[in-house]
Fold Methyltransferase domain-containing protein.
Amino acid sequence: MNVPRSAAHVWDEEYRRGRYRDEPPVAFVADILAAAARTGATNGLYVGCGNGRNLMPLVDGGLDLLGLDISAEAVRQLADRRPDRAGRLRQGDLDSLPAGETWPLVIAIQVFQHGNREQAHRQVRAAQRRVAPDGLICVRVNAVGTDVWPAHEVVERAPDGGFTVRYTAGPKRGLDIHFFSHAELDQLFAEWAPVLPLRPHRTERDTPGTGQWTQWEAIWRRRVSGNRRE
Ligand SMILES: C[S@@+](CC[C@H](N)C(=O)[O-])C[C@H]1O[C@@H](n2cnc3c(N)ncnc32)[C@H](O)[C@@H]1O
């Protein structure tokens, strides 16, 4: 039987193997910088910053970001790459941050998909609570429609189309990973104003025959009560 493994342990191993070391940032970084500039946000929280392929260009683009990640290895590698940011990195999850602290900008790139549906939704809601009034949340997350690879079993499927798999092979073997549907994210962000409306981003895999993976990308603004902007 495949039992769930700890995401922190899996990611520590991945980063030790060199994951993302030479990878360019995702193009969504440019959308985040543009949205932050439009709203005047200059500081924020990056949940699941990894070893920095996206955090570094965001910081170089003028944002003062607190980088948070459950992987000690990711934080160590990022601190080595950018000693100037070492004091702005934390190992842990959202619960490890001071209660009630919020930011004008919260960034989460490929992080909310960890765990099953209930755990993934809990992470989304915990991140939403970290956004200051009128602040932005920038999300890139696994989408249904992905050709899920490598071997896995589907462990849950909801009427809105969202589903969770448990990998039975590959680096994420034993890990539960959630794939969100459009309707599911619409529901989770029903009270938020879209700044960059939800859009799919498809990437063809390099290995022939393994298909594509799709990510949802979106930026929402926390509505201030009485101020239904956009
Ligand atoms: C797919 S990687 C993406 C890393 C980075 N955002 C990037 O795009 O390069 C997911 C990252 O999220 C981290 N992670 C997973 N669950 C987390 C949680 N609950 N809180 C903080 N980080 C988490 C993992 O350790 C890993 O570094």
